[in-house]
Structure to design on (178 residues):
């Protein structure tokens, strides 16, 4: 499809339109800058942060100026963009603060693996009967009576085995620490 010569734009016309778009954005910027900055400064309580948010908002408006300028309220889009940027910064800052003061869970997978490995090594040093009694009573929370029923031994034997196992584990931990 060919464009008739009467509708074709010369390079100078394209530059003129770009100047018009740029000029209209500059006019919009000049008209809204002070009000937006004031609103952001009041919201954030920090002039430097307000300046950064304002710059980000105007940049987003500039990038979409061809669509924004055609809106019924380009100011509304500008203020909504600035407000969203402000809220996003607040959320990121809150997460960062929680991380710093350790309110977020500190899941350290390597530490958990290391701890499990140490427990497994310590349990391997026990006799099989001591290990069974220890696992049932300490890790699974069974009473000595319940553990005895499951192991087919008396409750007093379970208590004796767990006492011996704890003494062995205590000695091994003290050896490692010294």
């Amino acid at each position: 499809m060919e464009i008739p010569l009467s509708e074709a734009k010369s390079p100078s016309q394209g530059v003129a339109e770009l100047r018009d778009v740029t000029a209209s954005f500059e006019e919009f910027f000049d008209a809204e800058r002070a009000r937006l900055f004031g609103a952001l400064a009041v919201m954030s309580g920090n002039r430097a942060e307000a300046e950064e948010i304002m710059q980000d908002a105007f940049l987003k408006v500039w990038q979409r100026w061809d669509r924004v300028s055609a809106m019924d309220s380009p100011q509304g889009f500008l203020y909504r963009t600035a407000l969203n940027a402000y809220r996003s910064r607040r959320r990121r800052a809150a997460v960062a603060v929680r991380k710093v003061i350790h309110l977020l869970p500190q899941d350290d997978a390597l530490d958990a693996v290391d701890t499990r490995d140490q427990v497994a090594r310590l349990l391997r040093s026990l006799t099989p009967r001591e290990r069974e009694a220890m696992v049932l009573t300490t890790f699974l929370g069974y009473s000595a009576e319940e553990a005895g029923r499951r192991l087919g031994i008396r409750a007093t034997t379970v208590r004796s085995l767990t006492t011996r196992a704890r003494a062995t584990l205590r000695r091994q931990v003290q050896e490692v620490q010294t």
